[in-house]
User: What shape does this take?
Amino acid sequence: MDIRRILSIIKRWLGLFLLGTIIAGSLGYFISSRQTPLYQASTRFVVLSATTTGYDYYAYLEYNQLMGTYTQLLSTDSLLQQVSEDVGFPVYGGADAEQIGDTQFVRLTVTHEDPEKAAIIANALVSVLIEQNEQLQSVRYETTLQNYQSRAEDALQQMESLQNQIDEKSQ
Assistant: This one.
């Protein structure tokens, strides 16, 4: 093929190529202009576990489970309902939590049509999670304390009983 033939083929199809490009660009603009824009807000928080001495494989597994639990808790219906009550408007899905690498940080990303509401929801989710965690820890502490008090009372009763038996035998 010579150069003239190639140029005539390009000239013949150039108009169709330009028309296709213009139609595709216009269609893309039309579709994107009709879509509701979505905004994202993200926040980070740290998950701390009880300190352990030395390297303990079971503590490592427990910590990984704790991270997974927190990331799942951030999308539960009960937490979203509590956040809805706190912020004063309905909060639905759109929250995604993930551990940042092998660190103790979790990144929470909230997607919403309103950028201010996205930020409010992200901050409220973390606040409610902290409140619920504090309540859970308080209940666990109170239960443990009651268990220790009960054991101490049982031990005192046993000591009194043994002391009475010793006193009876020594008389």
Q: What stands out?
A: The radius of gyration is 32 Å.
